[in-house]
Amino acid sequence: MTHMTMKELKNAVIKTAVDCAADLVGFAPASRFDKQDPLFAIFPQAKTVICLAFRILRGYLRGIEEGTTYYQYTTMSVENLEEVMMPSGALRVAQLLEEEGFKALPQKRQRLIINENSDITNPEMQPGDIVRGLDKEPQLDFIDSAVKCGIGEKSFHGQLLTDDFGPLQRIIFVITDAELEPDPVSEPHLCDNCGECVKACPGHCIDEKGMTDSWRCAVYYKGGAGVKNPFMRPDDFFSEKDRLELIAGEAEITPERARDLLRKIYFYPPIRHSYVTSICGRACDTACYVHLEEQGKLKRSFKQKFRRRPVWKFDISDFDVIGDERK
Ligand code: SF4
Ligand code: SF4
What we know:
By secondary structure, the protein is an alpha+beta fold. It folds into two domains: 6-176, NADH Oxidase, CATH 3.40.109; 196-326, no CATH class. The protein has helices spanning 6-19, 38-42, 58-66, 71-99, 142-148, 196-200, 214-221, 243-247, 255-264, 283-294, 317-326; strands at 24-29, 48-55, 104-107, 113-114, 131-132, 153-154, 160-161, 169-176. A four-stranded antiparallel sheet has the order 1-2-8-3, sandwiched between helices. A hairpin with a 5-residue loop joins strand 6 and strand 7 (160-161). Helix 7 packs parallel to helix 9 (255-264). The longest helix has 29 residues, at 71-99. 39% of the residues are buried. Bound molecules: iron/sulfur cluster (2 copies). The site of one iron/sulfur cluster has 13 residues, from helix 7 and helix 10.
């Protein structure tokens, strides 16, 4: 059987990924990774890391922007991408590499495993379903690896930003022993440290250094902020002494308290693979996207700007009235 040249193979990898709905494809040589990187624990003979990025449709975020539909973002732009589209694309690329005589190992982010000793959580997942203590299984640093593949840059708030979609994409990798031509790492040029991501979070979960408090984020991602939650019932959080501060996104939240609060709010049942519906609508990323669009930094243009009117907010004084009546 005759095999492709390496140039042909790279082009075929890109075509296969794009045919499977990937929007961006980038290639990093293994030499860009430190010898201690999990990459070599996963696949010691690795020669190339391939990143596939799939856009998050801005239409899904418009539903949350308008306050009309929330469930669609999580089912289609989180679960469907992570559990269906992205693994399918990575599998097809890996099959192609195997057909050409190489080994290939798809790397899907394991969202339900958290390192045993770290007290963080994954706000996208139902916290009770997250497994701790399985940190013997190495995982790539997804954002760092995508940057090495030339896909984009790391933002102030720790997300991946690309010229095409800003912060609105999800990523998966294929590691292979095929030595494919690398793409250049791009010089950071999108994030200007404007702080819009910090200001937009209804739960004040991102600090002035850009670090996100993941337990706090879990509470507000799932709808803890009454100012941005059309589903909050008048007596939600009624037993909390600092209820109004909590609903306003200003209460102190420890990891223990976050676990307790998350058991008390259930605006949507978790979706099949333990994903929880984003009621905050990833306001941090949306604000970043709006900022990059306003700055004219994104390659893809649309007939209308994403943000068409000032961001809406509920008046939470109603919660105060009901609380007083029940004292
Ligand atoms: S909102 Fe501003 S500071 Fe935050 S990531 Fe985007 S560009 Fe950077
Ligand atoms: S806007 Fe949402 S996703 Fe972003 S930090 Fe705040 S709660 Fe978390």
